[in-house]
Amino acid sequence: MLDRPGSATQTFDADLSAIRALAEVVPGALPVALNAVKFAASIRPRKFVIEGGDDASVTMPRTVYQVVYPDGTVMIDAGMDKATHDSFGEGEPYDADAFAQVMRALRAARMIVLTHYHADHAGGIVTAEDRNALARKTVATTDTLSLMMNNPHRSHLKLLEADAAQFIRIAYDRYYPVAPGMVLIKAPGHSPDMQMIYLRLQSGREYLHSIDAAWNLANIRHVKGKAAPWVKEDVPSVMAQLCWLNRLMTDEPDLHILVTHDGELLDLMIERGAVGGNLKV
Question: Any idea what the CATH number is for the domain that residue 39 is in?
Answer without folding.
Answer: 3.60.15.10
